[in-house]
Amino acid sequence: MATRPQRVGMFGGAFDPPHWAHRALADVALSQLGLDVLHILPTGQAWHKARVLSPAQHRVNMCRLAFGDLPNTRIDEREIHRAGPSYTADTLKELATEYPGAELFLVLGADQLLAFKSWVRWPEVLAQATLAVANRATNIGADATLDPQQETDLSGVDLPFRRLDMPLKNISATAVRAHLGQTISRSDSLQVLVPEAVASYISLHHLYQNPS
After folding, report:
1. In the list 50, 73, 76, 106, which could disulfide-bond 39, CB 3.0-4.6 Å?
2. H or E element: which one contains 20?
3. pTM for the model
């Protein structure tokens, strides 16, 4: 009897820090796509971000705390060790070699889908993987409320993608960093934004004292 190809997911990002919306997206991708493995990839040199990211090892450690108990996940450090900018096309090409014949999925939020055609070698990415997209609220910035609001309009997107069914979450890493800049950091006050272990790690290492 023929067996189905492996299903391999890639979920990349700065994860500076990883928060509840990141974890929810990983969980939904695993279940709704039937993934055999989900590679979670903290980015190395982020060509598209103007601000300097937190040290890679902190972001990797926080990813282990945020995602480590989800089944079939792998915290993948390849991009932080890669020389030069991190490009998704390169990582997908490597995954295709490591999992011959596998079906590849690139897990994204709606904001990333809207910016997809600004990515380096985006047609190559599209040829290699199915885009799996969870919608996001229209406002996920530092001033966003935690209550669900209007979702991002994806009706004008002229790219093929598979929609993931995930409740709207108005959390962003920008909001987490802004929250830390406005309050005396206590791990319990962060737990509405990030997993408890991540909140404790942030407090222990005094991260994001001068958010940007």
Report:
1. 76
2. helix 20-33
3. 0.87
